[in-house]
Amino acid sequence: MSHPLRFPFIFITAFALTLTVTEPAFSQTPKTVFVEDLTWTELRDQIQAGKTTVIIPIGGTEQSGPDVALGKHNVRVKVLSQRIAQGLGNALVAPVIAYVPEGSYAPPSSHMRFPGTITVPDDVFEKTLVSAANSFTVHGFRNVVFLGDHGSYQNDIKRAVAQLNRSWAGSAARAFVPPEYYGASSDGYAQILRQHGYRDDEIGTHAGLADTSLLLAVAPQMVRQERLRSGPKPGLADGVYGGDPRRSSAELGQLGVDAIVSRTVDAVRKDTAGR
Q: From its phi and psi, is residue 145 left (phi > 0), alpha (psi between -120 and 50) or beta?
């Protein structure tokens, strides 16, 4: 006859073994380069272990034509920053700055003429960048790298970087805005597309073939592809500037992604060498 305590004892023993086996898994630091996915102690330990470069990705919430979601820049810069940080090996990625200058709202100008675009004043934007950078250096980061995915605020970033480096003179901290990132995603990528036989009136400067292909390569769910392929060529009234996105593809976008990542990794390594 079975002992009355046998099965409870087996159950308790098995449960204890399960806890013993699984407990270390819960204590492991996640394999991520995103600061927001770490606890403060995990972040502290990674900084102490040598991850002293932080990338601050800057996106923007704006219209990109009728077939591309408003968060294009935010998603794109996050994915590209992740791959750049992984390529560097000693970098982590800050949360994306999604509120950026996009024109005035009284009266609406530029992309603010389209619903969903969000704008902030230039001085507020620059102060946000400076405050974020100072926050990271307080906690041990030495290299602060700004990657801006949108063209309109590039000069704002440069002013913030100049201000930071003046204030950090004599310290171990340094701010950078590598021109290779935006250069590779705009003129550099357009040149790649020309070499593959695409015309400037397709490539465009905003929401055209270049812009849309890059997004298809990193976040295809953000492009309304069926409507894009079957609809008429969009124009200025639709929010598409000087291009035609209908022949966009993830394969074309990957050419741009590879160029942006490799050129930016090389640039950041050069800028931070010996630091």
A: beta
Put simply, whether the predicted model's pTM sits higher than 0.85 gets the answer yes
Q: Amino acid identity of 96?
A: V
Question: How does 38-59 read in b/e, with b if 16+ C-beta sit within 10 Å?
Answer: beeeebeebbeeebbbbbbbbb
Q: Which helix (H) or strand (E) segment is 156 a member of?
A: helix 154-167
pLDDT of residue 27: 57
**DSSP label at 26?**
H
C-alpha–C-alpha distance, residues 70 and 261, integer Å: 23
Residues 6+ apart with CB under 8 A from 226: none
Residue 67's Cβ-count burial label (10 Å; 0-12, 13-18, 19+) is buried
User: For residue range 110-119, what is the model confidence (pLDDT) as tens digits?
Assistant: 999 999 999 9
Residue 243 and residue 207 in contact, taking contact as beta carbons nearer than 8 Å:
yes
Q: Do residues 80 and 261 make contact, with C-beta atoms less than 8 angstroms apart?
A: yes
